[in-house]
Amino acid sequence: MTHTARRIGRTLALVLPVVLVLSGTLAVTRVNWAGSNESQILTASSENVSVRAKSRAPQDVLRDALLIELQEKDAGTALTHLQREVERRPSLAQHCMSIARALGRAAVEHYGPVKAQSYSRPVCDTSFASGVAQER
């Protein structure tokens, strides 16, 4: 009898903590943490976890950074940095005109057409001026 009791005790000592941890975890996932009336279950994993985020093209990253710079500083600074980046990375030269045009359109929205035109310079074959003219 002692041997059987000891065996049952060991089994419970191994199984009981696992059962308690799992039941506690399941209870926590069922708690309404958001405070809304919707039934919501937290999950530990998702189906699309292994899907990699799409990387952005260098010209898109540069354009977005220059548009922010235009907003925070001025269009002249953004154009100067565009010219330097194209000189530093010649692979961006094919996108220079479209980036400069986007800067021109953003400058018109930010400064108005007259002041935006005052920042115009021959970066990327005067595409900035073309963007300003398109936005007028």
Element string (H = helix, E = strand): HHHHHH
Helix/strand class: mainly alpha
The helical percent reads 55-70%
Counted beta strands: 0
Q: Determine the mean pLDDT.
A: 80
Shape: rod-shaped
Question: Care to describe what's here?
Answer:
The chain is mainly α and 136 residues long. It is built from six helices and no strands. It has helices at residues 2-29, 58-72, 75-88, 96-111, 113-118, 127-135. It starts with a helix and ends with a helix.
Report a brief summary of the structure.
The protein is mainly alpha-helical and 136 residues long.
Task: Map the helices and strands.
Blueprint: H1 2-29, H2 58-72, H3 75-88, H4 96-111, H5 113-118, H6 127-135
Key descriptive features of the protein:
136 residues; mainly alpha; 6 helices; 65% helix
